[in-house]
Design goal:
This protein is of the alpha+beta class. It is built from 20 helices and 33 strands. Strands 7, 8, 9, 11, 12, 13, 15 and 16 form an eight-stranded antiparallel beta sheet that branches. A six-stranded mixed beta sheet has the order 2-3-1-4-5-6, sandwiched between helices. The chain has a six-stranded antiparallel barrel with strand order 17-22-20-19-23-24. About 2% of the residues have low confidence.
């Protein structure tokens, strides 16, 4: 079943409400003040019965200039418009204002309806019709049907209804995936026995009774208790329907017009958006940089400052890139259309579309910023993905897709192409990073390690934790897991290598002088001579002819800390074994230690005292050795006894 939403537009008292009543037999003016004053103040809703089985919803908007904000709350998300001009008055101020709003909101289809034909002569009607045709020339309404009607006599109402059905027969493209469910709230009320009800045009996705949904921007979690579309209880509503949703366990004051009912992570909650803005050709207002303006997006109205990124002021006919800095958070999605109105006096001056819903704060008059905005405005999804992954954030493919206003499945072909070209890389855990950005990250790591190797030629490498911290700090990456995934990719590429808790350039190796090689041999012999008795560093310093004071003097100098460097080299070659952070043992001694543990295994385990006695060593050394066996996975300690694993 097709679901179509039609909006009306036109000057006050041009017969929009009466036209809808003639089409649907529904009076959309429901407020007593509306009936008393004879004008529409709030949004009205109706549906047009038809033989095709279509759900055709109609939104009646106010035409009076004082209620433009109410008109804007309802006109977004429509499939086409009934552009209404009264035959007795022709084009009037709000006719022009509504027309420019429709263009700014990206409405692409419609029917021109000339009402009140019963009040004018044929010749006058022809003049009005000609005037309208001239006015819409070059716009989306230029070649659209123009139908004169009279809601009073019924003239041509059937013809109009037939034309509406023809419009509905064409393909209506809406995304119905539940992940993109979104309903901008334009009414909130309570019903006795039901609780809080919100209504709106379901612009994207679908929802079902029982679904958990969220109210944004507050991110309030709730559940759908019931759904009505066109006055009927249903289990599911889909994009393109006027929808009323009964929300469970939610008071009326927890949701307002302008909020968005959506799936989890279905919108971006933001106080800053990058936009493309077109200033209406009819306006005489000048929009200066940093001006305060009213933003209307979906059903939301918010105040913001407009930062013009390439000029000091925008005038009639200009199309500019800007950043809107809002005074309160809004819930939007890339591609959303909006209107801006002058702060004071409040007059409509332009409109545009959201290019980036979660941008960085930009500096003005920067070529790189403007180039990036051009890509967000005109580029394909692959180009936008490459741009976004080249920034500070690391995205999963689903996060990136939703930020671009797409389904992950729709973005995937573009991502795959960029990954194949090397323009986007995939880190561990599926995080995406732009190829150029990854290159800069890799160069940073290489430079850090080069500096470290130069200052510490005898060290096997920079402590891995230090490298993680330095890289994260330099590139403002707050998640260590992300930094670690970058280093792991560099290991896979053969750019760097890990050795225990250190990192080094892949081609780096400690190069010993002849004197240092002799010291290495003396240290190895000392460990072999000690057997299972472990040596402290100051004892090794004496072995190679350096007193404690001498050792302290060489730490941090060009030749580095010699003893730890030689220990690391011996451990790397397997000639000694690191038992604990402080102690090493010769490989022959380590084999003796393992043999002692195996000899004691009888199925019942063994104690520290038994192990100590079997080796004939001190309790202290026995304890260190057992902890080393535990760490190596050779033994397991249950709190009292150890067993060979």
């Amino acid at each position: 079943m097709k679901n179509i939403i039609i909006g009306t537009a036109g000057h006050v008292d041009h017969g929009k409400t009466q036209l809808i009543k003639a089409l649907s037999n529904i009076d959309t003016d429901r407020l007593s003040e509306e009936k008393k004053r004879g004008i529409t103040i709030e949004l009205g809703f109706a549906h047009i019965p038809n033989d095709q089985g279509y759900n055709i919803g109609v939104i009646d908007v106010p035409g009076h200039e004082k209620f433009i904000k109410n008109m804007l709350a309802g006109i977004g998300g429509i499939d086409f418009v009934l552009f209404v001009v009264a035959a007795d008055e022709g084009i009037m101020p709000q006719t022009r204002e509504h027309f420019e709003i429709l263009r700014a909101l990206g409405i692409e289809d419609g029917i021109i309806v000339v009402t009140k034909t019963d009040m004018v002569e044929k010749e006058w009607l022809e003049l009005v019709t000609e005037d309208i045709r001239d006015y819409v020339k070059g716009s989306f309404l230029e070649d659209k049907p123009l139908i004169p009607v009279s809601s009073k006599t019924g003239e041509n109402i059937d013809v109009l209804k037939e034309e509406i059905i023809k419009k509905c027969n064409r393909e209506i493209k809406r995304v119905e995936a539940p992940e993109l469910f979104r309903l901008p709230v334009d009414r909130v009320f309570t019903m006795s026995g039901f609780g809080t009800v919100v209504t709106g045009t379901l612009t994207d996705g679908r929802c079902r009774v029982g679904d958990e949904v969220y109210i944004f921007p507050e991110n309030t979690k709730t559940k759908i208790r019931g759904i009505q579309t066109y006055g009927k209880d249903v289990q599911e509503a889909v994009a393109g329907q006027r929808t009323a949703v009964n929300l469970a366990a939610l008071s009326k004051n927890e949701v307002d017009r302008g909020d968005v009912l959506a799936a989890a992570d279905g919108v971006s909650v933001t106080s800053m958006i990058d936009v493309e803005v077109s200033i209406f050709e009819s306006t005489d207002r000048v929009i200066k940089n940093n001006s305060r303006v009213h933003l209307y997006c979906g059903s939301k109205e918010a105040l913001c400052k407009i930062i013009l990124l390439d000029r000091e002021a925008a005038v009639a006919g200009d199309k500019v890139y800007a950043q809107l800095r809002l005074e309160e958070p809004v819930a939007v999605r890339r591609g959303d259309r909006f209107i801006i109105r002058f702060y004071s006096p409040i007059v409509t001056v332009g409109g545009g579309r959201v290019l980036d819903s979660l941008p960085d704060k930009h500096k003005r008059n920067r070529k790189d910023v403007l180039n990036a905005l051009e890509i967000m405005a005109e580029g394909d999804p692959g180009e936008m993905a490459e741009l976004k992954t080249g920034g500070r954030r690391f995205y999963s493919s689903s996060e990136l897709a939703f930020e671009l206003g797409m389904l992950p499945s729709a973005l995937k072909p573009y991502l795959d192409e960029k990954i194949q070209e090397g323009r986007i890389a995939v880190l561990e855990g599926g995080l995406l990073v732009g190829g150029q950005r990854l290159k800069y990250l890799e160069e940073t790591v290489e430079n850090l390690l080069k500096e470290y190797h130069s200052a510490n030629p005898l060290s096997p490498g920079m402590p891995k934790q230090e490298l993680l911290s330095r890289l994260g700090e330099l590139w403002h990456i707050d998640k260590e897991k992300t930094v670690s995934s970058i280093l792991n990719m560099m290991v896979q590429k053969g750019i760097i290598k890990f050795k225990e808790k250190s990192a080094a350039l892949a081609g780096f190796a400690v190069e010993l002088t002849e004197e240092q090689k002799a010291d290495r041999t003396r240290i190895l012999e000392a460990y072999r001579k000690a057997g299972i008795e472990m040596l402290k560093n100051d004892e090794l310093a004496q072995v190679i002819g350096k007193a404690d004071g001498d050792l302290a003097q060489v730490i941090g100098k060009a030749d580095g800390d010699l003893v730890p460097a030689l220990q690391a080299d011996l451990a790397s070659s397997g000639e000694i074994v690191k038992v604990s952070p402080e102690y090493f043992i010769s490989s022959e001694g380590w084999e003796k230690v393992k043999a002692a543990a195996l000899s004691l295994e009888s199925g019942q385990g063994f104690t520290l005292a038994e192990f100590r006695d079997s080796l004939g060593t001190s309790r202290k050394f026995a304890s260190v050795l057992l902890q080393g066996l535990d760490k190596a996975g050779i033994t397991v300690f249950d709190g009292e006894r150890r067993r060979v694993h």
